[in-house]
Design brief:
The chain contains 17 helices and 16 strands. The protein has helices spanning about 5-15, 30-40, 60-65, 70-75, 105-110, 115-125, 125-140, 160-170, 190-195, 195-200, 205-220, 225-235, 240, 245-250, 295-300, 360-375, 390-399, and strands at about 5, 45, 85, 90-95, 150-155, 155-160, 175-180, 185-190, 225, 255-260, 265-270, 280-285, 320-330, 330-340, 345-355, 380-385. The chain has a five-stranded mixed β-sheet with strand order 12-13-14-15-16. The chain has a four-stranded mixed β-sheet with strand order 1-10-11-9. It is globular and about 65 Å long. By secondary structure, the protein is of the alpha+beta class. β7 (about 175-180) and β8 (about 185-190) form a beta hairpin. The termini are far apart. It holds the Pfam family AlkZ-like.
């Protein structure tokens, strides 16, 4: 095994680990294809912004091509579900088999140790109120937090804010889970009523064993990564990481390597693939695992990426909701998109090429935009010729 790996090889390894060498389905993607993607990514980060489509739907599209959104929706409901929701990288869909691996985090959260400090403090102060909300879930679940807005209970008037706090505390602690969603609103229920019995019957590992297994999943999903990359995937603490990587190296599951241009040591998963070529063409969500750790994105692709949703419009560099464009093994452009559903239009507000982007970038991006237009059920594409790539896109669309 090589001790030093070129940056180009590291990119190919990382993209292969994320499923970009897997063949796309010939027909309509089904649960088997969803399972395959989840086996690669290990999680799908959930986000509520719907400027184009909510971010958790996009990684499947980027890897499988057009698929029915109901594929993921249906995989997250009923006792035959494939995924459940919990805090992983951030709020995420996770394969149901990983439920026992998150029990340590739930147990710590119940003690106020593994959640936002403000919520932990609130939970300590409002323990009796939380138990009232829990009894409501027991008696009425699946139930949304909004169902208790303004309802009078033993603890006084339940406003949305307090009810939502209580539901979120119980969710962190694993005492309730997401049974389904109504729009984007969670409907909560007890895990024993929402999750497959076979999953609930799985043994709960010790925290140390769970951390080790989560690092295995992270390492497979990365292919090649630094210690910080591996830790960030499931947001493990430095204390939780202590000694775990060394154990996986000793077991031969991780191989220490150096990557060209990286200042920190890296670890190669023992089953990482070394493709000679990546032939990807995909728009990536801001929270796709390929790009959600921004320093890794810069190291791998020399691509500095920040989401500017919360940046005042006049201070934005690239736009409100900007998606990176992956072509081959490189991120070659970025495009500010908006799905204008009432008008039936996919709006390209601006597009920018990366330095050294190949000559075919504009044409390839137009093809990808056409595919996305069809997937989202929009009637046309309209391009504002802004950014250095915008005029070329506008010309191609016009012709």
């Amino acid at each position: 095994m090589k001790e030093k790996i070129s940056l180009a090889a590291a990119r190919r390894i990382a993209l292969a680990a994320q499923g970009f060498t897997d063949p796309r389905p010939n027909g309509t993607p089904d649960r088997r294809h969803l399972t395959r993607v989840l086996a690669r990514t290990g999680l799908l980060q959930i986000d509520s912004v719907s400027a184009v489509v909510r971010a958790h739907y996009m990684p499947l599209y980027s890897r499988l091509g057009p698929y029915p959104l109901a594929l993921l929706d249906n995989a997250a409901v009923t006792r035959k579900r494939l995924v459940f929701e919990y805090w992983a990288h951030e709020a995420s869909f996770l394969p149901v088999e990983t439920y026992p691996l998150m029990r340590w985090r739930m147990q710590r959260a119940e003690r106020g140790e593994e959640m936002y400090n403000g919520l932990a403090k609130w939970g300590h102060e409002r323990a009796a109120y939380i138990e009232e909300i829990y009894r409501e879930v027991v008696g009425r679940g699946p139930i949304a937090a909004s169902a208790l807005e303004g309802q009078k209970g033993n603890g006084g008037w339940w406003g949305w804010s307090d009810a939502k706090h209580a539901f979120e505390w119980l969710f962190w602690a694993g005492r309730i889970t997401t049974a389904s969603r109504r729009g984007f609103e969670r409907l909560y229920d007890l895990p024993e009523r929402a999750l497959p019995p076979a999953v609930l019957d799985l043994p709960v590992p010790s925290p140390e064993d769970a951390h080790r297994e989560l690092l295995r999943i992270s390492a497979r999903a990365h292919g090649i990564a630094t210690s910080g990359d591996l830790r960030d995937y499931f947001r493990l603490s430095p204390a939780d990481m202590k000694g775990r990587l060394e154990e996986l190296v000793e077991l031969g599951e991780l191989l220490p390597v150096r990557v060209e241009g990286w200042s920190k040591p890296a670890y190669l998963h023992k089953d990482a693939r070394f493709p000679r070529k990546i032939q990807a063409r995909a728009l990536l969500a801001p929270f796709d695992p390929v790009v959600f750790e921004r320093s890794r994105t810069e190291r791998l692709f020399d691509f500095r990426y920040r989401i500017e949703i919360y940046t005042p419009a006049e201070k934005r560099q690239y736009g409100y909701y900007v998606l990176p464009f992956l072509l081959g093994e490189r991120i070659v452009a970025r495009v500010d998109l908006k799905a204008d559903r009432p008008a039936g239009v996919l709006r390209v507000h601006a597009a920018y090429a990366e330095p050294g982007a190949p000559a075919e970038t504009a044409a390839a991006l137009v093809e990808e935009l056409k595919q996305m237009q069809g997937w989202l059920g929009l009637e046309q594409i309209e391009v504002t010729p802004a950014g250095d790539l915008g005029p070329a896109l506008a010309d191609i669309i016009a012709s």
